[in-house]
Amino acid sequence: MTTVRLPIDYEQKLDFLANLKKKSKSDIIKEALDVFFKHEETEVDSYKLGESFFGLYGSGDGTLSTTYKSKIKDKINGKRNTH
């Protein structure tokens, strides 16, 4: 058994819903937790969500992450040599 302290506005909303639906507060809380747990179980992290797009529009050059410094130096030196 678990006891939960709720803010007054939650308690009032829970009372209202229980009366409206003719259910106990416990049943409404259980239903709300069921929805919450299902949502948490099906939630996908951001990596999984974008995984199919990673590399989709790539340059095809797999060395860019390791050779970017030399490429920048070449560009800078190329500009200097053209003057």
In brief, what are we looking at here?
This protein is 66% helix and 0% strand. With 83 residues, it is mainly alpha-helical.
Account of the 3D structure:
This protein has 83 residues and is mainly alpha-helical. It contains four helices and no strands. It has helices at 8-21, 25-42, 46-50, 64-81. The chain starts with 7 loop residues before the first helix and ends with a helix.
What are the defining features of this structure?
mainly alpha, 4 helices
Topology diagram in text:
Elements: H1 8-21, H2 25-42, H3 46-50, H4 64-81
- Shape summary: rod-shaped
What is the overall pLDDT average?
86
Estimated helix fraction: 55-70%
Low-confidence stretches: none
Number of helices: 4
Order of helices and strands: HHHH
Strand content: under 5%
Sheet having the most strands: none
Question: From the alpha-carbon coordinates, what is the Rg to the nearest angstrom?
Answer: 29 Å
Number of strands: 0
Please state the structural category. Answer: mainly alpha
Distance N terminus to C terminus?
80 Å
